[in-house]
Amino acid sequence: MKRIQAVFERLQTQGRKALIPFITAGDPDPALTVPLLRTLVRAGADIIELGVPFSDPMADGPTIQRASERALAKGVSLRQVFELVRDFRTADQETPIVLMGYANPIEAMGVEAFAVAAGDVGVDGVLVVDYPPEEGIDFAHTLRRHGLAPIFLLAPTSSAARITQVGALAGGYIYYVSLKGVTGSAALDVAAVAARIPDIRARTGVPVGVGFGIRDAATAAAVAKIADAVVVGSRIIEEIEQSVPAQACANVLALVAEIRRGMDAATSMSGGTTWAG
Predict the structure, then answer these.
(1) For residue 216, which phi and psi values (nearest 5 degrees)?
(2) Cα–Cα distance between 26 and 54 in angstroms, integer?
(3) Model confidence band, residue 269 (pLDDT cutoffs 50, 70, 90)
């Protein structure tokens, strides 16, 4: 959790916004996951969301669903995801890793055992799509005891009461889902997102990241002007999916570096960060 906080504090002093790319662990092959993670860092990632493969990823659109299917076909389990993070940490002790997934694998392992294992390998935060704040209180407290940030989702339909609930529990950052639907399902309405961010900021004390619908440098730049972080997932998975394995890292590097440049150009022109801390 301290690594995540340090990232946002550093970016705040620089007048920049966090780039948070997402990939699915084990997709298209477990042997490529750590090289891809390191490629994302080279391309300018500040925090990385690493998806835990799951058989019924209900919040994810077809692209990330296929990524989970490919990883599961390779036999990737939650314990193997931990080993991939451990491998990544042998050469990178700075970049925060956030696990993103669903409750079933965690419940099967046991929440306490999960938190211990995640902390031991160097995970910094956890976002569980199907742990709403009403049911995630004990989970959030368990994560915090082990130094992990409990990250929660908010959506365009979230009420003021829900935002306040999330604000009371969240650590690291809040993930604002920019549209109604699943990942990769629609074009992002930046004006609608901009209208919601002030209310979220007023009720929470952590940075706000925006994801879903961000597919290129121009959209990422527009979001970077209004939010503290930009989350990009489906577009990166598509790049991996369309690449032969030997070219996947190079293609992802080019895509994510372009997004990074767009974000930095936008925030330098707009005067930098909006997060008050």
Answers:
(1) -155, 175
(2) 11
(3) low
Asked if residues 180 and 157 have their Cβ atoms less than 8 Å apart, the reply is yes
Alpha-carbon gap, residue 215 to 220, rounded angstroms:
7
What are phi and psi for residue 187, nearest 5 degrees? -80, 150
49 is catalytic: yes
Structure tokens at 69: 């299917």
Q: What percent of the chain is helix, strand and coil (3-state, nearest 5)?
A: 55, 15, 35
Would you say residue 186 has pLDDT above 70?
Answer: no
Distance CA 81, CA 140 (A): 21
Burial level of 8, CB count in 10 A (0-12/13-18/19+)? Answer: buried
The token pair that represents 259 in the structure block: 């997004």
Of 60, 228, 239, 264, which one is the catalytic site residue?
60
Element (H, E) at 226: none
DSSP state of 133: G
**Radius of gyration over every alpha carbon of the chain, rounded to an integer in angstroms:** 17
List, in order, residues 6 or more apart from 180 with CB less than 8 Å away.
155, 156, 157
pLDDT of the residue at 274: 52
pTM of the model as a whole: 0.94
112 catalytically annotated: no
Q: Helix (H, G, I), strand (E, B), or coil: what is residue 44?
A: coil
pLDDT tens for 56-81 read 877 788 899 999 999 999 999 999 99
**Distance of alpha carbon 63 from alpha carbon 194, whole angstroms:** 26
**204's tokens:** 């929470």
Token pair of 173 as six digits:
């950052």
* Length, in residues, of the chain: 277
The label of the residue with tokens 């569980």 reads 128
* Residue tagged active-site, from 49, 124, 228, 239: 49
Determine contact, residues 115/142, Cβ cutoff 8 Å: yes
